[in-house]
C-alpha cells in the first residue's frame, strides 16, 4: 500500500536542488522565533481590539438609552422596512498596539468650576441600574458626563483627549497605563497589553447636539489567560508546526539522506564484487540524482575495465606461454643433448631461442605502448595541421602512398605524436598484409575531420571484422604480429576524443579516423 502510494506521488514530486532543500529548512528554522513572536503580538493585539469592540458595543447601548431618555429628546423612530443607503453605520476598531501610543495613567482630576448639568445628573442616576448590571458582565467602568465634560461628582474630565474628542462629536479610544495593576505571573512582563487600560469616550447625541459623554474603561484580557482560554487553538497551531517539521524532515530524508544511504550500501556491494546499482529515486535532489548517474557510469566503467583486465591478463599469459615454451624446450634439449648434437642442430635451436626472445621483446614493447595509450589524457589546446604527419608517415611507409590532404583542411584537436603513431600503425599493417599501394585522404565534415586510409591489399575478412580492434587479435601471428597495433591506435585516439573505425571499400582495407576540429 505504501509503495503504491509512493509510486503515485513520485511523478508529481518537485525536482529540487540540495541547496534549495537546505535553504528551506534553515529559513524555516530561522523564522520560527519570529513567527512565534509575531503570532503572539498579533494574538495580543486581537485581544485588545476585542476589548475595544466590547466597549464600543456597550457604549453604543448606553448612549442610545441616554439619548432616548434625555429631556427634550425627539421620540424614537421605528426602523423602516427598507432602510435607505447609509442607514447602517458600523464602527470598526481602531486600536493597534504596535502603532498607537500608550498615554500615562489617568491623572487626578480637578474639581469643575461649575456643577454638572442637572439633566445629565438625572440621566446618570436613571441609567445607573443599567450600567451596574452591564458592569457585572463586562467588568467595564462607566461614567456619564455633561456637555462640558463634568461628572455627577463634580470632576472635570474635559482635560482628557478622549473626552475632548467625544465633546466634539467623535468617539475615540485611547490606551493608558494601568497604575492599579498587580502582576501575579513571572512572565507577565512579556505582555505589552498586560499593563494598559482602554478608555473609550462616546458622545450622547440628542438630535444634532452633543448633550453629554459616556466614558468607559476596561483592561483587556491578559495574554497568558487568553492563551489558556484558547489553548485548543494553540494546540492546533502547535500540531500544524509539528506537521510542518515532519514534512521538512521527510523532505530531507527523501531528497538527501535515504538516497545517499542507499547509494552508500550499493557502493559497498560493488566494492565487494557484486550487487546491483539501484535506480535513481524520483524524489531525490538534483545533485543526488547526478551522483546516482555518475556512480552508475563509474560502476559500468569499472565493470568494463575489470572485464578488460581479465581478458587482457588471459591473453597476455597465452601470448607469453608460446615463446616461453619454445625457449624452455630448446634450452632443455641443448642441456640434455648438447654433446651429441651436430653444429647445424645447435644453430637451429639457438635461432629458435633468439626468435622467441625477439617475439617476447616485441610483446613487452607493444604492451608498454598500449599501457601508455590507455593512460593517455587529453592535451589541452592541442591543434595539429594534418599535412605534416601525413607526409612523414607516407615517406616512412616503405611503399607508394598517395596523399590527398588540402591545406584548407582545418587543424584537429589531437597531438602530433598521436597522429604520427596512428598513421604509422595503419601503413605498417597495410604493408604486412601485402598491400603494394595505399592512399590517405582528408575531408572536413562539420565539427569533425575524417582521415581515410585505404590500401590495395587483401582486405579484412568478414569473420575478423568484429574482433579487429581486440588486443592480441591478429591473423599474422606466424609472421610476428602481436595484434596490439590497432588497440594502441584506438586508445591513443580515444584520449583526444577521436575514434577509428573500419570502413567499406572495394578490395583492400579502409580505415576511417574521425578527429575533432580544433577550436
Question: How would you sum up this structure, described in words?
Answer:
The protein folds into four domains: 47-72 and 90-222, Beta-Lactamase, CATH 3.30.450; 230-268; 286-373, Helix Hairpins (Orthogonal Bundle), CATH 1.10.287; 379-516, Histidine kinase-like ATPase, C-terminal domain (Heat Shock Protein 90). Helix 2 runs antiparallel to helix 6. Strand 9 (499-502) and strand 10 form a beta hairpin. It is rod-shaped. Strands 1-3-4-5-2 form a five-stranded mixed beta sheet. It has 519 residues and is an alpha+beta fold. The chain has helices at 2-9, 18-69, 118-138, 161-167, 223-229, 231-271, 286-337, 343-374, 387-395, 416-432, 485-495, and strands at 102-103, 141-146, 172-177, 196-206, 209-218, 401-404, 438-445, 448-455, 499-502, 510-516. The model has no long low-confidence stretch (mean pLDDT 79). Helix content is 50%, strand content 13%.
Amino acid at each position: 500500500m505504501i509503495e503504491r502510494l509512493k509510486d503515485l506521488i513520485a511523478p508529481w514530486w518537485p525536482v529540487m536542488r540540495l541547496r534549495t532543500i537546505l535553504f528551506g529548512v534553515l529559513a524555516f528554522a530561522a523564522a520560527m522565533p519570529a513567527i512565534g513572536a509575531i503570532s503572539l503580538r498579533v494574538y495580543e493585539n486581537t485581544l485588545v481590539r476585542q476589548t475595544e469592540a466590547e466597549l464600543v458595543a456597550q457604549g453604543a447601548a448606553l448612549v442610545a438609552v441616554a439619548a432616548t431618555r434625555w429631556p427634550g429628546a425627539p421620540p424614537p423612530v421605528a426602523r423602516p422596512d427598507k432602510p435607505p443607503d447609509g442607514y447602517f453605520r458600523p464602527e470598526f476598531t481602531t486600536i493597534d498596539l504596535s502603532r498607537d501610543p500608550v498615554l500615562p495613567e489617568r491623572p487626578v482630576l480637578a474639581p469643575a468650576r461649575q456643577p454638572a448639568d442637572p439633566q445629565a445628573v438625572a440621566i446618570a442616576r436613571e441609567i445607573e441600574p443599567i450600567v451596574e448590571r452591564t458592569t457585572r458582565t463586562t467588568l467595564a467602568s462607566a461614567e456619564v458626563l455633561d456637555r462640558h465634560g463634568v461628572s455627577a461628582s463634580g470632576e472635570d474630565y474635559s482635560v482628557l483627549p478622549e473626552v475632548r474628542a467625544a465633546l466634539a462629536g467623535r468617539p475615540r479610544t485611547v490606551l493608558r497605563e494601568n497604575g492599579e495593576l498587580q502582576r501575579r505571573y513571572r512572565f507577565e512582563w512579556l505582555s505589552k497589553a498586560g499593563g494598559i487600560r482602554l478608555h473609550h469616550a462616546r458622545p450622547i447625541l440628542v438630535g444634532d447636539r452633543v448633550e453629554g459623554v459616556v466614558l468607559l474603561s476596561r483592561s483587556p484580557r491578559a495574554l497568558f489567560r487568553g492563551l489558556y482560554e484558547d489553548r485548543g487553538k494553540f494546540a492546533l497551531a502547535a500540531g500544524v508546526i509539528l506537521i510542518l517539521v515532519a514534512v521538512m524532515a521527510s523532505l530531507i530524508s527523501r531528497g538527501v539522506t535515504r538516497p545517499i544511504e542507499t547509494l552508500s550500501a550499493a557502493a559497498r556491494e560493488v566494492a565487494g564484487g557484486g550487487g546491483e546499482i539501484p535506480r535513481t529515486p524520483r524524489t531525490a535532489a538534483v545533485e543526488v540524482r547526478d551522483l546516482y548517474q555518475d556512480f552508475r557510469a563509474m560502476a559500468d566503467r569499472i565493470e568494463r575495465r575489470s572485464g578488460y583486465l581479465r581478458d587482457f591478463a588471459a591473453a597476455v599469459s597465452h601470448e607469453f606461454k608460446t615463446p616461453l615454451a619454445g625457449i624452455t624446450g630448446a634450452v632443455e634439449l641443448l642441456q640434455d643433448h648438447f654433446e651429441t648434437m651436430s653444429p647445424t642442430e645447435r644453430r637451429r635451436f639457438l635461432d629458435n631461442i633468439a626468435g622467441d626472445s625477439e617475439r617476447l621483446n616485441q610483446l613487452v614493447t607493444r604492451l608498454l605502448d598500449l599501457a601508455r595509450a590507455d593512460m593517455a589524457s587529453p592535451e589541452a589546446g592541442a591543434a595539429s595541421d594534418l599535412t605534416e604527419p601525413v607526409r612523414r608517415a607516407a615517406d616512412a611507409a616503405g611503399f607508394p602512398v598517395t596523399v590527398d590532404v588540402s591545406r584548407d583542411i582545418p587543424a584537429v584537436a589531437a597531438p602530433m605524436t598521436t597522429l604520427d603513431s596512428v598513421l604509422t600503425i595503419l601503413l605498417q599493417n597495410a604493408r604486412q598484409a601485402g598491400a603494394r599501394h595505399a592512399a590517405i585522404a582528408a575531408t572536413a565534415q562539420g565539427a569533425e575531420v575524417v582521415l581515410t586510409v585505404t590500401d590495395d591489399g587483401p582486405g579484412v575478412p568478414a569473420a575478423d571484422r568484429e574482433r579487429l580492434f581486440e588486443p592480441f587479435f591478429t591473423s599474422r601471428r606466424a609472421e610476428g604480429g602481436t595484434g596490439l597495433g590497432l588497440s594502441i591506435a584506438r586508445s591513443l585516439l580515444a584520449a583526444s576524443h577521436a575514434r577509428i573505425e573500419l570502413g567499406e571499400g572495394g578490395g583492400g582495407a579502409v580505415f576511417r579516423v574521425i578527429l575533432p576540429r580544433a577550436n
